[in-house]
From TrEMBL:
It holds the Pfam family PEP-CTERM. This is Ice-binding protein C-terminal domain-containing protein. Keywords: Membrane, Signal, Transmembrane, Transmembrane helix. InterPro entries: Ice-binding_C. The chain crosses the membrane at residues 167-184. Residues 1-22 form the signal peptide. The keyword Nucleotide-binding does not apply. The keyword Transmembrane helix applies. Residues 163-187 form the Ice-binding protein C-terminal domain.
Length: 196
């Protein structure tokens, strides 16, 4: 019985110290060429990216061989496009955007179980890739809507990580392990002896 109690405590302690699984959706695995239409779904590190409304393209811009997702007229598309990211419950840490030959606008919406968690809007000026960070946790869906006021807006390096439970959740889990261990400790074995 004591081994079980100590085993439960050890599992809880290891869970507290385990780092959250992090991923950067870099689109490096896209197989189309520069200007290919992106339809998705594209899966990277357990996260799935799908095209929403508008025209989304794969692009290698400014001589960069690593692809990104592109919205805009640079490849003959419209000025507005959207993509969706899903992958369990996760934290949304940052993303990179760049606009070419003009400004661009973005809106990022996060959802959990279909309910809105946050909405972030902003504008870009043409100054190379910009990292936008410090965003939100505990979401299960992320929507990007990009508007190219110039020839393109490019999305890359979506930084996400597995959500870490709140401290209160950990406390209840540890108390639960303790209660189970205590119940097992107090449980008496029923021994039945029969004589022939």
């Amino acid at each position: 019985m004591k081994k079980l109690i100590f085993g439960s405590a050890a599992v809880a302690a290891m869970a507290l110290t385990a780092p959250a699984q992090a991923a950067v959706i870099s689109f490096d695995g896209l197989s189309g060429g520069n200007g290919s239409v992106f339809t998705g779904p594209y899966v990277e590190d357990g996260f799935t990216v799908s095209a929403g409304r508008g025209d989304i393209f794969e692009g290698q811009i400014f001589g960069n061989p690593a692809p990104s997702l592109v919205v805009g007229s640079v490849f003959g598309g419209g000025s507005i496009g959207s993509v969706q990211v899903v992958g369990g419950v996760f934290n949304f840490n940052s993303f990179d955007l760049v606009t070419q030959n003009g400004t661009g606008d973005y809106q990022v919406d996060g959802f959990l179980n279909g309910s809105s968690v946050f909405s972030l809007m902003g504008s870009l000026s043409p100054s190379g890739f910009q990292t936008i960070g410090g965003l939100a946790g505990n979401i299960d869906q992320l929507n990007f809507t990009l508007t190219a006021n110039g020839t393109s807006v490019n999305l890359d390096n979506i930084d996400v990580s597995a959500a870490v439970p709140e401290p209160a959740t950990w406390a209840f889990m540890i108390l639960g392990f303790g209660a189970i261990g205590g119940a097992l400790r107090r449980r008496k074995a029923n021994v039945k002896v029969s004589y022939a």
